[in-house]
Amino acid sequence: MRSLLSILFRWWDLENFFLFSFVLAYSIALQKVPFLCYTHNK
User: Fold this and answer.
1) CA dist., res. 25 & res. 9, Å (int)
2) What is the pTM of this model?
3) How far apart, in whole angstroms, are the C-alpha atoms of residue 7 and residue 5?
4) Count of the separate structural domains present in the chain
């Protein structure tokens, strides 16, 4: 039972890590895209 709990905890941590990295990449992309469009239009 304890091992199952640890596995679940690890899986949840992994899920959070994926979510966090996705949000981070998304925010970076949002910051970069307008800048790229601005420099391209100029």
Assistant:
1) 24
2) 0.48
3) 5
4) 1
pLDDT by residue (tens digit) across 1-42? 678 888 777 777 888 888 889 999 999 998 888 777 777 776
Rounded to 10 degrees, the C-alpha dihedral 27/31/32/35 comes to: 170
Residue whose token pair is 């905890």 = 9
Q: Which residues constitute the domain of residue 14? A: 1-42
CA angle 5, 7, 12 (to 5 degrees): 95
